[in-house]
Inverse folding.
């Protein structure tokens, strides 16, 4: 009688792969001495594994380099050598003996993601059809801008917000980040990718140059001007984002 | 401080070293170079965000592959389908001509095509075991499935590759 059906498909795979915990290697070797049907079953699942690994190896050379991760996305890890609870207990004791200040500063604190990281995560949910149906007239767009201008304390003109040729201006929305108003101006690029220009009041004064980055796989650029921080983000056309950010940084 | 690398450093260093392999795996999951870039990048960002959860001195490569697999299944894949583009056939993938000659690229594309013709679950398992070299137990851990499922996927995948590729590599236990 043939042994062919004595072994399961999974056992035969494990046999070929040398996974001895999952196949009765010796028994199969023994059966193979006399069982042609078993040979046939093995033959049906044999392929040129070396060709597979060798040809896909070249893909490694074509892979992009690991991205630089924006610092605001990185949360400091808890210190592994002292359990967090021990930290909390130590902080509580210090609170009792040396007062609030010492306990507060010694307790472990986790940095939360910054506003750019949160905006990027939100923007990643946008698709073309989030915005493609929006067609407001100038009066409606103006009214929106008056509303968001009042909330954030700086005036936006339609000629400025809709002044970049490569971006089709759609709407202005008021969002909030940790209690602070955040204005989102939404656009569609020429190829229909959603792009947003977000503005939030900054505690830092002064002006910074446009810095390009990539967040959540999207092209982005950020800068600061006159007490406000700006982030332009969306799509994958870095060149378009760069030139649009440059224009906005000059006109807004 | 104690002469031991923090988990953050371990993840940062591991990410750099594993990234080409991770990207290749993402390419075979997504079938599209742009989407592979997105998936690998999302995995990198998620890994840095979660680096405090990485168990020190364990295998960062498996941790990253598992993360990519989860993001693909839970986020990117559904988005790819929703956007209507679906999964782009591998023939359309632009493989940049770098060091290897055109013939080598052609061969890579042919083999990729055969791999991409496999159903997704079989493809991921075949990649992890036969290309990345993970054991059954390791692949099961990455894919978060039982070892028996790894084995049955490998059987089905092997049977298909046996028909489309040559049969040179007949190993015995």
């Amino acid at each position: 009688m043939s042994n062919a059906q004595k072994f399961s498909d999974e056992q035969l795979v494990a046999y070929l792969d040398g996974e001895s915990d999952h196949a009765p290697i010796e028994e199969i070797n023994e059966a193979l001495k006399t069982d042609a049907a078993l040979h046939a079953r093995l033959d049906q699942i044999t392929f040129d594994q070396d060709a597979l690994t060798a040809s896909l190896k070249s893909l490694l050379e074509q892979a992009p380099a690991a991205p630089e991760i924006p610092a605001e996305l990185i949360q400091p890890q808890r210190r592994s050598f002292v359990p967090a609870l021990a930290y909390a207990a130590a902080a509580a004791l210090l609170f009792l003996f040396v007062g609030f200040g010492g306990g507060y500063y010694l307790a472990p604190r986790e940095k939360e993601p910054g506003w750019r990281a949160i905006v990027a995560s939100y923007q990643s949910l946008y698709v073309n059809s989030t915005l493609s149906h929006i067609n407001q007239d100038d009066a409606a767009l103006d009214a929106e801008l008056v509303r968001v201008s009042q909330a954030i304390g700086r005036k936006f003109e339609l000629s400025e917000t809709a002044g970049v040729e490569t971006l089709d201006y759609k709407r202005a929305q008021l969002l909030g980040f940790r209690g602070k108003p955040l204005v989102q101006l939404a656009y569609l690029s020429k190829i229909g990718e959603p792009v947003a220009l977000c503005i939030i009041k900054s505690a830092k004064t002064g002006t910074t140059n446009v810095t390009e980055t990539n967040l959540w796989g999207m092209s982005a650029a950020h800068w600061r001007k006159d007490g406000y921080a700006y982030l332009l983000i969306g799509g994958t056309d870095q060149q378009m984002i760069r030139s649009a950010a440059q224009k906005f940084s000059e006109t807004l | 401080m104690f002469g031991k690398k923090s988990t953050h450093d371990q993840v940062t260093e591991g990410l750099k070293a594993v990234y080409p392999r991770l990207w290749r795996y993402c390419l075979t999951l997504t079938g599209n170079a742009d989407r592979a870039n997105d998936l690998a990048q999302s995995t990198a960002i998620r890994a840095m965000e979660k680096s405090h959860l990485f168990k020190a001195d364990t295998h960062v490569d498996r941790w990253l592959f598992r993360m990519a697999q989860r993001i693909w299944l839970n986020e990117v894949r559904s988005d790819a389908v929703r956007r209507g583009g679906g999964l782009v056939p591998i023939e359309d993938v632009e493989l940049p001509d770098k060091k290897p000659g055109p013939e080598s690229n052609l061969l890579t594309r042919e083999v990729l095509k055969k791999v991409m013709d496999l159903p997704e679950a079989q493809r991921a398992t075949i990649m992890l075991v036969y290309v990345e070299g993970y054991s059954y137990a390791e692949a099961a851990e990455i894919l978060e499935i039982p070892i028996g499922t790894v084995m049955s996927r490998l059987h089905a995948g092997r049977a298909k590759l046996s028909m489309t590729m040559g049969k040179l590599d007949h190993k015995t236990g």
About this structure: Chain A touches chain B through 57 residues (CB under 8 Å). Chain A has a mean pLDDT of 81.
